[in-house]
Amino acid sequence: MARTTSRPLSPHLTIWKWGPHMAVSIMHRVTGNGLATVGALGLVWWLMAAAIGPEAYATFVNCATSPIGYLVMIGLSWFFFQHLCSGLRHFVLDMGAGYELRTNKSWSIGVFLAGAVLTILFWSYIFFGKAF
Amino acid sequence: MGTGTGIGRVRGLGSAKEGAHHWLAQRYTAVGNLLLVLWLLFSLISLPGLDYDSVVGWIANPLVAVPMMLMLVSIFWHLRLGMQVMLEDYVHDKGLNFLCILLLNFYAIGGAAAGIFAIAKIAFTGTAE
Known about the structure:
The complex is a heterodimer of chains A (132) and B (129).
Chain A lengths: L19 H33 L1 H11 L2 H28 L6 H28 L4
Helix pairs in contact in A: 1-2, 1-3, 1-4, 3-4
Chain B lengths: L5 H5 L10 H26 L5 H8 L2 H29 L3 H32 L4
GO molecular function, one term (chain B): heme binding
Subunit structure (chain B): Part of an enzyme complex containing four subunits: a flavoprotein, an iron-sulfur protein, plus two membrane-anchoring proteins, SdhC and SdhD.
Subcellular location (chain B): Cell inner membrane
């Protein structure tokens, strides 16, 4: 968008005190685009490797189960659960509910907690699953 | 055009004739992702193993291949819409924005096609248990 750079802009991001609702909002975008790129490519890589054959699949498994691979998979699962929870928050907001300041703040904090708890439960089941 | 009531003007009668389609499709595919990706994650952690034979045998089952294909459609459609919004917000140059949306379309359709083809190949040539 063309604009005259000598003219001042109205204050925007820099003047607001950060709150949970702002953090959950930008995290929705960050997690969504992370999943859309790294997550979707990883999923297609996994499927393609399985379709190509045992050797290609072994390469995928080697990468996925390396320390960096686990870091990426744990990160992606957290991104997924975080995006899922903030997405559900969007459905509530779409209905016109949950805009009261206190409600909005507590649900935003709840989204972060739920995203983290679901990720921990998911990986606890994978690592210690048979004990449950 | 309506003869003057406010509701008449907004019921699909604006210059674009529509407006909520992108927003609604984002929600429809969000529900699709919610169901299908959770199904994938729960399936993966319940499989006896994630080695080549287990995974190929599992995907070859039609009751797995079909939801998996639907999941790819839902995921890539949803990310196509979401990344479009992100690009529209951050890439202000008209020409560059056009190029980004063009590449996004290639990515979304290409990625979905690759994933669906992989599933189809496994389903048609793999060995269902």
